[in-house]
């Protein structure tokens, strides 16, 4: 065991650390659990551009009141250095284990630093935190969540005054301040109750939700009630109250909430993973849908920023659609309705990430709409929206990413499951009143443009060795890029880290503009397939994205063509996984 690891273990085994922390570390020492101790202490839990995310437990590489406290103190120092503490910080939290504790402790630390703080009084969806920052004129915000990670995780997301997660220059500057807080005795603390009684912490109740509902009411496009039936699950998360309330308020009277999963619980007892991207997480809402003969299924993750969707097909079965399909349908719907009502601005824009389907670009161009590509992560979509605000050159209509995150409104600056659930229901109702189905609508998009098929393969490598393995894979593909994938020539390679495009057959290079540097590689093959490699920013995974397309002339071709494209993608995926080792 390295000397630095031993020193950290000794430090955390004594005062001023609390008894629970000391006991947890001493038990691991007594059990001679060297691997676990090394993982907890070989590095400090990194405060990255998305904040913190890690496994709960004692140690410098874990989420606990001390690592969260140090992060909050660093944020407080940055805010006070900018003399912006009077504007305040909004804090919200989800249903994960320790989320309520971390949120109150963060509020008390900010208060001890003289920073005004607004804390939601109960579990609150991430988009309402983003909305509250803008509504209250706060300088920053904190959301305690690990999104859809397994139960052993929690996290700490930081937002800036535009309501989006921090981007340059604030992100690096905040990270620098956080890294200076290397001892817990550098954290200023006061009791939460004292902070409230002294007026340093203001508790938010339903006033923000009411203002959000008012803003959504101003942009919704249907005015009459709806008879469609909706089955919804919050997957034990914080959407359990807000989303059914919003849907019912705006005329959807047949909203059925999955009872077992409507109980907030950080252990997520009914699912393996609380991720609406995974079919296994939606088994109970599918059963509820069948029991209630629901037209659509909606599922949100623990912090209610992501949405999964299913709809009843003509055969009566439920079809779960992927994130690219959900986003494309919403984009097509919103652009169609705005054009129909003569409300589509001449400078309309949609924003997508570089791993999101290119079908969304094709749809945008059909409507004469600008389409911007940004890095993976919704903070970059929010950053593009901020540019539109400042330059007034584009009007934001819709933003999204393939990982089930969408934004169909401009008064929030993060993934928003609340407005997404509303607009998907509104789209369903609009179609059904014309005797059209969601399946018909999706096929219509494919026929007008191309049939796109996307796939994702993630490889998980946990711990120190895992992180090194991921770095090794990226290093190998970057420094020895294959000229062929499964026998098919690579036309060009985009290295987003170097911001360089290389045409493989000729060796010609050109600079990539309008993107910041990031550890991403994109291979564009001669058959039109796009393959992307990137390490996850929030999980111990490396992700491989695949996208391919084909022209179809009618709905009758779609199933066969889809299978044909999928076989091609399967070949690339198997080849790539084997090469990655």
Short précis:
The protein folds into three domains: 43-205, Alpha-D-Glucose-1,6-Bisphosphate, Chain A, domain 3 (3-Layer(aba) Sandwich), CATH 3.40.120; 216-449, Alpha-D-Glucose-1,6-Bisphosphate, subunit A, domain 3 (Alpha-D-Glucose-1,6-Bisphosphate, Chain A, domain 3), CATH 3.40.120; 451-580, TATA-Binding Protein. The protein has 581 residues and is of the alpha/beta class.
Describe the 3D structure:
The chain has 581 residues and is of the alpha/beta class. The chain folds into three domains: 43-205, Alpha-D-Glucose-1,6-Bisphosphate, subunit A, domain 3 (Alpha-D-Glucose-1,6-Bisphosphate, Chain A, domain 3), CATH 3.40.120.10; 216-449, 3-Layer(aba) Sandwich (Alpha-D-Glucose-1,6-Bisphosphate, Chain A, domain 3); 451-580, TATA-Binding Protein (2-Layer Sandwich). It is 40% helix and 22% strand. It contains 18 helices and 23 strands. The strands form four sheets. Strands 16, 17, 18, 19, 20, 21, 22 and 23 form an eight-stranded antiparallel beta sheet that branches. It has a six-stranded mixed beta sheet with strand order 1-5-4-2-3-6, sandwiched between helices. A hairpin with an 8-residue loop joins strand 4 and strand 5 (153-160). The mean pLDDT is 96.
Total beta strand runs:
23
Low-confidence stretches: none
Oligomer: single chain
Q: Tell me the number of structural domains.
A: 3
* Share of residues in helices: 25-40%
Overall, the morphology is globular
Largest sheet: 8 strands, antiparallel
Query: What is the overall number of helices?
Result: 18
CATH top level class name of the largest domain? Alpha Beta
Full CATH superfamily name of the largest domain: Alpha-D-Glucose-1,6-Bisphosphate, subunit A, domain 3
